[in-house]
């Protein structure tokens, strides 16, 4: 039986051509397996690289959120992350950062230190005089009668040693009691007696028949909208003074002011559109219990800064939308009467890179669209917390040079300002553009630095608009 099995087993081929074909087939299978392994390895390496980049990106955002949550609010590059790059750029960056920090008093020298006679004397702190416009109350301090009697005739009065202190009188809340004179005719034959009692008219009030005088309304409005003092805190202040004035009452007074101040708002609105530059920005706000909207839906407060030179105007517009129609309705109201309302002057629009502003920039009357370097700088300051801190700090230093030019011509005539921008700011812009173009391919587009570079390059045409004009509001920041 075993012999039969051996005889039935096929023998391997002995033909060289067949053997070569089998070897070639085995080589092809091996090459295919190796290629599949290479593809799988490349895919694995690419996946690991994507994961590494994602981890780096998340670490950057974690650090950024930590700085925003626990760090200072100012857009400053962290001193702990300063790294050595170009020495000149580092010195420029350090100089800018030191200019933003408050001046620190030098430590006192040791007691046994001998002053260097070659050094100039140190300036001693000088107390500034108190404002001259404040009223003065003289309080003469003299020796007692016994002390002056003891001096006798041997001492002569020669004057006073004068010093000043700043004092304050707590605000005085008082009640105005109006007494309106009343008259009545002596008898029925007096002309006009049929009217009965004649009484003097009521005083002119912003809110008729209200207990709030205009001075009280002004104090509430100033405290809330200028000093950021909520109504509930004002309620406590009034309570300390023995006055019961609830926050609900004050809120009602503020609402009633809307009608009385509408003409003032209309005048401010007209002034807003008469300036050479109008700045616009919007910020999300959360409104509770707004009719027709949930608390999670975003609303926006639009802020406009404009007005003619010497008369700046700040205009606030609340809207549940972030569409371009909101600022367009403020600057170009559709219901304006062309006969009663003069057409607005042409102006430059300055904003960040939000797409709605690019739509608004195409409206008639807009001379040009100027980008905001402060927004650009903020993104590079945020990138300084990431993996490419050195490169981000280089850009912060370059932008700081633009700020230096603007500070040097602050208050100068528009022609001088524009000449300085052309002569000094334009070369800085050329350096910044070259840096952006060179650095962009070297960083990840989704990293903090990559996003900052992409934002700057995307807004570049608007970031150079300030070179066209010398108005103060068209500055780099």
Compact summary:
The chain is α/β, with parallel strands linked by helices. It is built from 14 helices and 7 strands. Helices cover 45% and strands 9% of the residues.
Description of the molecule:
A hairpin with a 6-residue loop joins strand 4 (299-306) and strand 5 (313-319). The chain is built from 14 helices and seven strands. By secondary structure, the chain is of the alpha/beta class. Residues 79-94 have low confidence and may be disordered. Among the domains are: 273-371, no CATH class; 372-477, no CATH class. Strands 5-4-3-6-7 form a five-stranded mixed beta sheet.
Mean pLDDT: 81
Helix content range: 40-55%
Strands side by side in the biggest sheet? 5-4-3-6-7
Q: How much of the polypeptide forms β-strand, as a percent range?
A: 5-15%
What would you call the quaternary organization? Answer: single chain
Shape verdict: elongated
Count of individual helical segments: 14
Straight-line distance between termini: 101 Å
Task: Let me know the number of strands.
Answer: 7
The topology string of helices and strands comes to HHHHEEHHHEEEHEHEHHHHH
Which residue ranges are poorly predicted, with pLDDT under 50 across at least 5 consecutive positions? 79-94
By helix and strand content, what is the structural category? alpha/beta
Gyration radius, in Å: 38 Å
What profile does the largest beta sheet have? 5 strands, mixed
């Amino acid at each position: 039986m075993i012999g039969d099995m051996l005889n039935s087993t096929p023998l391997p081929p002995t033909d060289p051509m067949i053997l070569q074909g089998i070897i070639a087939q085995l080589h092809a299978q091996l090459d295919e397996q190796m290629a599949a392994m290479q593809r799988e390895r490349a895919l694995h390496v690419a996946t690991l690289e994507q994961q590494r980049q994602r981890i780096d990106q998340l670490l950057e955002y974690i650090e950024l959120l930590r700085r925003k949550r626990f760090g200072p609010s100012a857009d400053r590059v962290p001193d702990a992350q300063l790294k050595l790059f170009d020495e000149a750029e580092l010195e420029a960056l350090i100089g800018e950062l030191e200019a933003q920090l408050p001046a620190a008093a030098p430590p006192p020298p040791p007691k046994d230190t001998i002053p260097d006679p070659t050094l100039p004397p140190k300036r001693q702190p000088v107390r500034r005089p108190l404002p001259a416009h404040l009223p003065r109350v003289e309080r003469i301090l003299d020796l007692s009668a016994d002390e002056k009697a003891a001096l006798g005739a041997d001492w002569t009065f020669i004057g006073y040693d004068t010093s000043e202190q700043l004092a304050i009188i707590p605000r005085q809340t008082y009640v105005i009691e109006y007494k309106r004179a009343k008259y009545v005719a002596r008898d029925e034959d007096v002309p006009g007696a049929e009217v009965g009692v004649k009484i003097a008219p009521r005083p002119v009030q912003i809110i008729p028949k209200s207990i709030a005088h205009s001075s009280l309304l002004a104090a509430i409005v100033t405290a809330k909208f200028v000093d950021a003092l909520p109504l509930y805190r004002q309620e406590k202040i009034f309570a300390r003074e023995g006055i019961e004035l609830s926050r609900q009452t004050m809120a009602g007074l503020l609402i009633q002011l809307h009608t009385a101040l509408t003409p003032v708002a209309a005048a401010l609105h007209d002034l807003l559109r008469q300036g050479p530059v109008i700045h616009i920005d919007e910020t999300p706000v959360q409104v509770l219990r707004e009719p027709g909207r949930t608390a999670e839906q975003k609303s926006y407060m639009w802020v406009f800064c404009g007005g003619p030179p010497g008369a700046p105007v700040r205009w606030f517009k609340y809207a549940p939308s972030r569409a371009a129609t909101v600022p367009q309705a403020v600057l170009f109201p559709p219901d304006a009467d062309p006969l009663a309302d003069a057409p607005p002057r042409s102006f430059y629009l300055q904003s960040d890179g939000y797409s709605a502003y690019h739509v608004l920039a195409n409206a008639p009357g807009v001379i040009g669209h100027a980008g905001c370097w402060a927004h650009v700088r903020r993104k590079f300051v945020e990138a300084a917390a990431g993996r490419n801190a050195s490169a981000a700090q280089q850009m912060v230093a370059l932008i700081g040079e633009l700020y230096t030019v603007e500070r040097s011509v602050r208050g100068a005539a528009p022609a001088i300002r524009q000449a300085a921008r052309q002569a000094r700011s334009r070369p800085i812009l050329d350096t910044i553009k070259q840096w952006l173009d060179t650095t962009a391919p070297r960083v990840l587009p989704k990293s903090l630095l990559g996003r900052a570079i992409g934002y700057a390059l995307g807004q570049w045409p608007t970031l150079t608009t300030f070179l066209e004009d010398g108005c103060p509001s068209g500055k780099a920041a």
